[in-house]
Amino acid sequence: MDKFKRNERLAVMTQVLTAAPNRIFTLSHFCEMFGAAKSTVSEDAAILAETMRQFKLGTVETVTGAAGGMRYRPMTQEGEGRQFMEGVCEMMRAPSRVLPGGYLYFSDILSDPALVAGMGRLFASAFYDAGVDFVLTMETKGIPVALMTAQALHVPLTIARHSSKVYEGSAVNISYVSGKGVIETMSLSRRAVREGSTALIVDDFMRGGGTARGMLSMLSEFNVKCVGTCFVMAVDNPMNPILPDCRPLMLLKEVKDGQPIQVRVADWVK
Amino acid sequence: MDKFKRNERLAVMTQVLTAAPNRIFTLSHFCEMFGAAKSTVSEDAAILAETMRQFKLGTVETVTGAAGGMRYRPMTQEGEGRQFMEGVCEMMRAPSRVLPGGYLYFSDILSDPALVAGMGRLFASAFYDAGVDFVLTMETKGIPVALMTAQALHVPLTIARHSSKVYEGSAVNISYVSGKGVIETMSLSRRAVREGSTALIVDDFMRGGGTARGMLSMLSEFNVKCVGTCFVMAVDNPMNPILPDCRPLMLLKEVKDGQPIQVRVADWVK
Question: ipTM greater than 0.90, yes or no?
Fold first, then answer.
């Protein structure tokens, strides 16, 4: 006789697994939690996996091997990511977003928890099997979406700063040429990065790729490999710089006063 | 005959409710999702509420009235928040965190998704019924924990900057005296804040309260009420400035070279 009913166990497993995406929980973890046999928990897991699949709420997978167990990945199914991003594009098209100088206001989108969580899941789903050790972003506007990407991948976030700060300890500083052609500096705490690890770059906007190249050159100082570069929005330009596995969610044509904002979802978003 | 089994419905309800904390979902939302009767979904909700309570995974509540429905609040139960923060304090006590000048390195903690999510839940649980419209933070280090607090409260995040940026549109700038006694500037986009709304301030560290007072004076420019001020860490000082409903998670004694780091969990954390 099991202590808890199947529906109770399933509710609890769902909460535990989805609250820590991509983290592997052993079967024993749940056996102890419920005072239930492994066979029972295995069956629970199979039902949960099928239910999540059916309702398009993500993937519950069984990982085999010594470090095996169960994990939840909030993967978006075919069409779902695109639909979500079409909604964000629609928000981007509001004429009131145009600022002097052809800039677009979208700080509200970049700090809306539900929107950045959705965008972070999209980035993460493209890099689940890339062995990412940490997410790197450059302050300030990309931090929320970078954090949500890191959460979905179950890895830490590291934030590069514009200048070294006393409370970051010793840091590596580099100079780079920004999108506007200006020389800027970037600083990364030495403690924040492990030599020889693997990074994913996440940032809010890419125009000429200057900041991204700065981050790449920073990573090479730490002997860190970069598996991909993710941007919430990039300028829609066939001459875009070549960056490792570049994933912009939205592509923006040059903004001209009085003309509609032309923004579309990038082709890789399904 | 229901289309889905109770255990399937419960798993899905758990995923939907916990992925959007504090957001109210109508019963009809789930009735349509499952093709089930209201009475069935009501029973599901009651089982779910009891299960979450039993496993200390948060609260599922029924909200009555026109805008009624169900919502999930990741409230921490008596003892749980304190245990979590004791763990963070233990991390803080590593002697390697001491930097020259009595500073402590804790950027790693401030950008760890699991830790900031836990801390954000603690802040949110103290202000669920305060009518918070948005969370305000000052760039840079407090952004992750502020975002997670906003997510737990189901409200947007607004980020004040050190200087006005072209892509933030017209902004209100103020000057304030920082903890170090230096005059600094703070800038907040006019579009980011609705006049007459209610804010919760979340930041990483409070020494003299200068930045917090700056944020309060910024909010008064927008005729915004502030219901509370949350800090990951504050200096443990009986002479601390008086701030609205001040909630530091950790209290730190002055750091002296060669002496153990004295940090403790604040009394309000249960």
Answer: yes
- Please tell me the pTM assigned to this model: 0.96
With CB atoms and an 8 Å threshold, state whether B11 touches A52.
Answer: yes
Distance (Å) of CA A191 to CA A167, A171, A206, B98, B115: 11, 8, 27, 12, 18
Selecting from B51, B143, B168 the residue whose C-beta is nearest the C-beta of A105 gives B168
Q: What is the pLDDT along chain A (270 residues), one digit of tens a residue?
A: 568 999 999 999 999 999 999 999 999 999 999 999 999 999 999 999 999 999 989 999 999 888 889 999 987 778 889 999 999 999 999 999 999 888 899 999 999 999 999 999 999 999 999 999 999 999 999 999 999 999 999 999 999 999 988 889 999 999 999 877 899 999 999 999 999 999 999 999 999 999 999 999 999 999 999 999 999 999 998 888 889 999 999 999 988 878 899 999 999 999
Domain boundaries, chain A: 6-73, 80-265
CATH number for the A6-73 domain, one of 3.30.1360.70, 1.10.10.10, 3.40.50.300, 3.40.50.2020?
1.10.10.10
**Chain B residues close to A150, C-beta within 8 Å:** 111, 113
What part of A 31-70 touches B (C-beta under 8 Å)? 33, 47-48, 51-52, 54-55, 57-58
Residue in B closest to A46 by C-alpha: B8
**Identical fold at B6-73 and B80-265?**
no
What architecture is the B80-265 domain classified under in CATH? Answer: 3-Layer(aba) Sandwich (3.40)
- Asked if A156 and B8 come within 8 Å (Cβ–Cβ), the reply is no
Q: Which of A57, A158, A192 is closest, CB to CB, to B12?
A: A57
Spatial contact of B187 and B197, defined as CB atoms under 8 Å apart? no
